[in-house]
Design goal:
- This protein is mainly α.
- 54% of the residues lie in helices and 1% in strands.
- The chain is built from 29 helices and two strands.
- Helix 15 runs antiparallel to helix 16.
- It starts with a helix and ends in a 5-residue tail after the last helix.
- 36% of the residues are buried.
């Protein structure tokens, strides 16, 4: 066939010495593009006078004859005779006269019922709610409604006609089509990307760091399926995620200081590259989230890049349609989709194609895991963003999508990860919190009791079904956040304010208690959690200080012991935060800064009471936990000479908050709660 350039100039297209380009294109230096489909009659095809069904039958006969010796003989003759009998029956029915309108309508209804296509689905317009996505579908509009209806975008585009015109092959037109095309993945691979190729880390070190992450840090940063995110697979998919996982692990290994510095620096380089070159993939979203929990502090408390990283992760996730529920297109045709709409769902085949897995079967285990990883990523992003906003007092940006509304049983699956239960529990908690800000006390308590009852049995540990420390801190901080929103409500009666002050102090003490008791499991505490714990400490200190003078003058020993007991618990919390911040020499964490800050405000609060005495009058500390890797624990900076102690009351009268249960804390506050 002649190339497009010769066709346009209407000259003979002759092959030259160049096997790729014709003689004219070789002379002009242009691209020699030959269409894959030739218009007109093919060689050896004769004009046929047969028409209609007769022509179709003749073509079937010829096809059977050319099919090969396996279908010759009786099988071929049998197929031809059956086709002829069907043709004769159709001609007889047509000769018998036109059918009545009623019979015709009945036949049409039976056909529709066989297809199981509901009327509202036949009238559905895919992506009508998404202008840019609808523009991307514009190239599929030439398909007839019957052929394109119900197809996923991937299926529809795979059936595009091959006889493209010369205008469509024009470079400018191709650029226009690419501009309006659907958003596809764009992996972050290239020169100076891979840390192993750059010599920053060896393959053995990478295996060790990944193994460490999945065993020791996965409970802190949800979203990564260990069955998928192995070293070879992650390295091939995303250099940013590959480096981020290793950098996070190196932060908590004492002997990996130099390695941690190299990987952290490369992480920042890749983050800039991803933003500059618009790389998009599920793994890039996960990479941004992996970097958030242990980000180094800036000059000011708001100078780190946490908010920017979450914003970038949210943008990429929405571009890749991660908020949508995976639902096959057939579910809408047979009515199995329930109350879901097309705009809330994405076909699994489309999801795999958009991620670069067009050859993976959506029904295979690998295909199901790949589709599920998208949903897990969106749930993890929702939980992380809500936690960050609560910790920093920012408005929410990640919306509550149908996937989040229907995620209560999402963790129940044969391919579920061990951390999916904890992830879903937090997603349900954050999701159901929005309508609770205006509820009354009974509804609020009932909500948390129901949550503890359901998720304590699901993810609880030990005979008492105790929640993991990290989850317990998040839950208790959530309760404290709710109380802090209504504690100063101008229209609240005095009794209501008393209740919320007591409940807020109880929640704040429980946050710190969970941090102290779960010290061994919280060595990888994220920055957001450190903010939550510090907020609880400041909140408790504020409330206890307000009644300090009243309590000291009161004969009620419980009231007098409340403020020093709270300060003792805050100091114990500061010890834990400082240990976590100094878990390795190169761990540049905000936890240490918050620990020093808590000690300074406790010192000021104690000095304000005018009472100084020796330290050690507070709650006896538990046995110091060893290093998380079995090494010798590094002692935090000593504050024994600078930190004032508590009132010179009997140490036995102080409340040992750090070793008490939640019910015991409430009972202690009720005994000392006359001033509340």
């Amino acid at each position: 066939a002649a190339c497009l350039a010769c066709r346009k100039s209407k000259v003979r297209c002759e092959k030259g010495t160049d096997p790729v380009r014709c003689r004219r294109c070789a002379q002009t230096g242009g691209d020699c593009i030959r269409p894959t489909f030739n218009v007109g009659r093919r060689k050896g095809v004769k004009n046929s006078k047969r028409k209609g069904l007769e022509k179709a039958l003749f073509q079937v006969e010829e096809a059977l004859k050319r099919a090969g010796p396996g279908v010759q003989g009786t099988d071929a003759n049998k197929a031809i005779s059956e086709l002829k009998s069907m043709l004769a029956a159709g001609q007889e029915s047509r000769l018998n006269g036109p059918r009545s309108r009623k019979e015709s309508m009945g036949r049409r209804e039976s056909i529709i019922s066989q297809r199981h296509v509901q009327p509202e689905e036949r009238l559905a317009v895919d992506d009508a709610e998404n202008p840019l996505q609808l523009l991307a579908r514009a190239s599929n509009l030439h398909l007839s409604p019957e052929s394109s209806h119900g197809q996923s975008p991937a299926t529809a585009t795979s059936h595009l006609p091959a006889n493209n015109s010369a205008e469509e092959m024009d470079p400018q037109m191709r650029r226009v089509e690419a501009f309006f095309g659907t958003t596809h993945f764009n992996v972050d691979q290239g020169e100076d990307y891979d840390p192993i190729d750059l010599g920053l880390v060896t393959e053995d070190e990478a295996e060790m760091l990944f193994d460490f992450f999945h065993k020791n840090l996965a409970h802190t940063r949800w979203g990564l399926d260990p069955a998928l995110y192995t070293v070879p697979w992650t390295r091939a998919r995303s250099a940013f995620l590959f480096t981020s996982v290793m950098a996070a692990s190196a932060l908590f290994i004492e002997s990996a200081a130099a390695l941690s510095k190299r990987l952290s620096k490369h992480c920042k380089f890749l983050a800039r590259k991803v933003t500059e070159l618009r790389h998009r993939s599920t793994e890039i979203v996960l990479a941004f989230m992996v970097n958030v929990p242990w980000m180094s502090p800036g000059v000011h408390s708001t100078d780190d890049e946490t908010c920017w990283y979450i914003s970038m992760a949210t943008t990429i996730a929405i571009d890749l349609e991660m908020p949508k529920i995976s639902m096959p297109a057939e579910a809408f045709r047979n009515g199995a989709a329930g109350q879901l709409t097309r705009q809330d769902c994405i076909d699994p085949e489309t999801a795999l194609r958009s991620g670069g897995f067009k050859d993976v079967d959506p029904n295979s285990e690998l295909g199901r895991r790949l589709v599920r990883r998208r949903e897990r990523c969106w749930l993890a992003l929702f939980v992380l963003e809500r936690g960050m906003c609560l910790a920093r007092g920012r408005p929410y940006t990640v919306p509550i999508t149908p996937l989040i509304r229907r995620c209560d049983r999402w963790h129940i699956s044969d391919i579920a990860d061990s951390m999916d239960g904890a992830l879903v529990s937090m997603a349900v908690l954050r999701r159901d919190l929005d309508p609770l800000f205006d509820t009354i006390r009974s509804l609020l308590d009932k909500f948390f009791e129901q949550w503890y009852l359901e998720w304590g049995q699901t993810i609880g540990q030990g005979p008492q079904n105790r929640l993991p420390p990290y989850v317990e801190i998040l839950v208790t901080h959530t309760r404290l956040s709710i109380y802090s929103l209504v504690i100063n409500h101008p229209t609240a009666p005095l009794e209501v304010r008393h209740f919320f002050r007591t409940a807020s102090l109880s929640a704040a003490l429980n946050v710190m208690r969970a941090a102290v008791q779960g010290e061994k499991q919280l060595y990888s505490m994220p920055n957001n959690t450190a903010i939550m714990v510090s907020f609880a400490a400041c909140f408790a200190l504020r409330l206890s200080t307000q009644i300090a003078n009243i309590g000291n003058a009161n004969t009620n020993s419980s009231s007098a012991a409340l403020a020093p007991s709270v300060r003792t618990l805050i100091e114990e919390t500061a010890d834990v935060l400082e240990k976590i911040g100094n878990v390795t020499r190169h761990r540049n964490s905000t936890c240490g800064l918050y620990a020093k800050y808590l000690r300074s405000i406790v010192k000021k609060a104690a000095a304000g009471t005018g009472l100084l005495s020796r330290q050690g009058m507070g709650t006896p500390r538990a046995v110091q936990q060893g290093h998380v890797y079995g090494e010798t624990a590094r002692q935090p900076t000593s504050f024994k000479d600078t930190t004032p102690a508590w009132p010179a009351s009997n140490p036995a009268d102080l409340f040992p908050f750090s070793s008490m249960s939640g019910d015991q804390i409430i009972e202690a506050l009720n005994r000392a709660g006359g001033e509340f």
